[in-house]
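Note to self: the last two entries modelled the partners one at a time, which told us nothing about the interface. This time every component goes in together.
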Amino acid sequence: MHKRRNWSWILIGLGLLIALSACAGAPRVDWTLEISGAVDTPLTLDYGTLVQLPETDLEDILMQKSLGEDEIGSWSGPSLDLIFERAGVSDYSSVTATAADGYAIEISRDELQNAIIALKKDGTWITQAEPDRGPIRLVCPETPANRWVFQIQKIQVNP
Amino acid sequence: MNGRTFPRLPSTIYRLLLLCLFLAGCAGGWQTTLVGPDGTGAVISRATWRELQAFVAEDRGVTGDDYLLLERVLYQHGHHLIETLTVTDSDGVMRTFDWDAVAGDASWQKHGALTIAGETLRASRIEGQPPALADAVTTSLMDIAPTAAAALGLPAPAQATGRVLTETRASHVLLLFLDAFGYVRYTEARDAGLIPTLRALAEPAVGSTVYPPSTAVASAVLLTGAPPAINGAELRGTRTTEAETLFDVAARAGLRVVAVEGNALAFNLRNAEVILSGDRDGDGRTDDNVLANTLAVLEDGMPDILWVHFHGIDDFGHTYGPNTPEEKAIIAYVDAAVGEILTALPPDTLVLIVADHGMHTVQEAGRLGNHSALIARDMLVPVWVVVK
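The predicted structure of the combined assembly is written out below.
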């Protein structure tokens, strides 16, 4: 009887582990990012595709805020260079990034050094950590916060 | 003794109960009389605080800290411009503060105390005194959308409260948006000979902007003709409005709207063809790119409404401070750019030239100019209405 009871506890434990690991995976989010403009292959990347791309980690980087204190944080997600490689971007001067609420900004190539499409902030999915700023955010290290476009939907590459 | 209603308890317990009631009253209740610009008094209490709770995070910059900028309360009670503030404390002692010097740090704590110039006061009465220039104010940003709409024979946006500044009808409207070129700075630049183009126009009306004097909040007012409390864009970080805009009205009438912006869109300009003007030539400013894009639009054919936003005065004002050589140079540049645009305009165009706010000198980390206060430098803007 004791042995059977032990097995049942092990099975319950395994079930819990499986459930927990499923919870820890990427959240299901309905979101797309369009890459257009001076590209060979325009892309529409859904959230699941972005999650599958190799992740770049930016640790303890500075966001310069015009109001309040500058922020330091760690961000993770696919690099913009990788996405541009897949879209066949050969040369460009700037991008125009547009957010879901219509906010848009033109960002020079220099300011996009080491930029990523962040899916996580400080190890937590942005959609869970900052729901009103997620699920994805353009993160441009060492640049003013208005370049860090949250809820980004479109990137137009300018020649 | 049959009339006795209270149970027999030791008198100490009654005293303790009374003390508790007294303490609860002290902790929860406070009130201050705030005298409005029209001389009438309003009572500010914990209830007022609760009504403005949504602004706490914005004012403090950190969610959860319990204070409001005093200006927030003053603005909500009709004060749009303050030169001095007189505070009478609970002992009847009156103190007068130069608002220009103390506005940024004056706050109202949740428990009712004021903090001004590093002092904590328990105020029984507060009265703001406006500057003499307040008497010269004849218009506001609320008037721009109704005026532009009327010129094109369109109805004003649905929630507009502003009035029409001219009955002139026109085929086109140009809205020139000179970011941070406040009225006080205009007069200084005019007197210093920096702005021959603008000086050659008729003297502008003195207009008032809205609180907080910032681009996003003012843009919503410019587009809707409605104050922040109505159009919903009350915070600096708000990027869009649900209220009907001038561009919505124009689009419904089948008109073409083009907006030439700097590198970033400060506010959602839905129903406009937006042209961003990033600093692609890397010269450290975007106004030359705005000018080039505007002239290109005009060459292709003036749209029904053209919105042009020069951002350099704001950028340089923040970085170098007002009245510095760098900021003066960009003012002169923008003035010349305005001249080029006016020259390239087709006839029968109504030109509205406005600013969203002004700028005052600060000594803050990373910036030497800012705009956030209920002072003339930040809150007054020039408004030109010109028919070409």
